[in-house]
Specification:
This protein is of the alpha+beta class. The protein folds into two domains: 139 residues, Immunoglobulins (Immunoglobulin-like, Sandwich), CATH 2.60.40.10; 101 residues, Immunoglobulin-like, CATH 2.60.40.10. 22% of the residues lie in helices and 39% in strands. It has five helices and 20 strands. The protein is elongated and about 115 Å long.
Length: 332
């Protein structure tokens, strides 16, 4: 026993040292990841169709990257085409060659591609866009992505994996452009006792360019009178994608059918897409309670009235005594 105690203490000591070292390494890694923060300005360029370029035209724009970390960083800037995730809003950079119909990355040159930024510092990256002579009219899209260059450090901390920031660039090539979009889904419940009324809305864009519709909801009652209206948030919808615009009509009580009209202007030509749906708002539970209350009141009134009438009736005579037969003496 005396020999095993020192060994046991030694094992415990080694275990504690190992645990402390692992915790220190893990916390250092986490702090390194949290400390790396990049921001870019602006986050979008040309989404308002301001980058309208002709085939063969050149255009230089600038983006700014800021190092909000507490450490000096070398920043690498790259340009990628991107696809939109299934939600219709999240851009995903891709390195594979995309269909040239929407590609923009191959038209862009970045200078400089590397910047050394001190903590809290910033740098400007020049973005040169050169549109080919044979470029297809319509929208072309790319992402300028900035990320820390952790040479020899990334494998240890993982800090450079997720710390990236980018600017989306929307270029509109002039020419004959097809604009076509429609409301692919406008669904509301057929019947509700009370609100709020959920609205499932999806807009499909089959144009050659992205669109930024701002749907407006107009509500009319059974008489065709407008009782409410409100606008939904505007969102970019990329070509041949669908995006969700679902929202809620915050009306609580109503009675009768209501027609919901959806209108949304889109495109550079100011076209309008429309859709409509009808909902019945009927507070069934309240109506049943009111009817039962009325029936109860009527029943009580009738019962009291009948009771009062019974009190007012005169007492009845003994009919049986009046109809008794006469005895023999009275007959004689």
């Amino acid at each position: 026993m005396q020999l095993s105690c020192p060994k046991t203490k030694l094992k415990i000591f080694v275990f504690l040292i190992s645990l402390f070292s692992f915790s220190f390494i893990f916390q250092s890694s986490a702090l390194a990841q949290e400390a790396v923060t990049l921001t870019v300005k602006p986050v979008r360029i040309g989404d308002d169709n301001s980058l309208l370029l002709a085939p063969g035209e050149k255009k230089q724009i600038q983006v700014k990257v800021e190092n909000n970390s507490e450490m000096d960083l070398e920043i690498e800037s790259q340009v990628f085409d991107f696809i939109v995730d299934e939600d219709g809003s999240t851009p995903i950079p891709v390195t594979d060659q995309l269909d040239n119909r929407w590609s923009l990355a191959s038209w862009i040159t970045l200078a400089p591609a590397f910047n050394y930024l001190q903590a809290g510092g910033s740098a400007t990256v020049n973005v040169l866009i050169e549109v080919p002579e044979n470029a297809s009219p319509g929208g072309h899209y790319a992402m300028v992505l900035h990320s820390p260059n952790f040479t020899g450090v990334e494998d240890q901390t993982g800090a450079g994996i997720s710390q990236r920031a980018g600017t989306l660039i929307y270029v509109l090539v002039d020419g004959v452009i097809n604009e076509s979009a429609y409301v692919s889904l406008f669904k509301i419940p057929n019947f509700l006792e009370k609100g709020p009324v959920p609205m499932e809305i999806k807009i499909r864009n089959e144009s050659d360019i992205h669109i930024t519709p701002t749907p407006k909801i107009i509500i009319k009652n059974i008489f065709g009178k407008e009782v409410a209206s409100f606008a939904l948030d505007s969102k970019n919808v990329f070509p041949f994608t669908e995006r969700d615009f679902s929202d809620v009509w915050v009306k609580k009580w109503g009675f009768g059918p209501y027609t919901l009209l959806l209108e949304a202007a889109y495109g550079i030509q100011g076209q309008v897409m429309t859709a409509q749906s009808v909902i019945w708002l009927v507070p069934v539970t309240i109506i049943i309670i009111i009817l039962l209350s009325i029936l109860l009141i009527v029943a009580v009134v009738m019962m009291l009235k009948k009771k009062k009438e019974n009190r007012q009736l005169p007492p009845t005579e003994d009919v049986e005594s009046d109809t008794q037969p006469m005895n023999d003496q009275e007959q004689k």
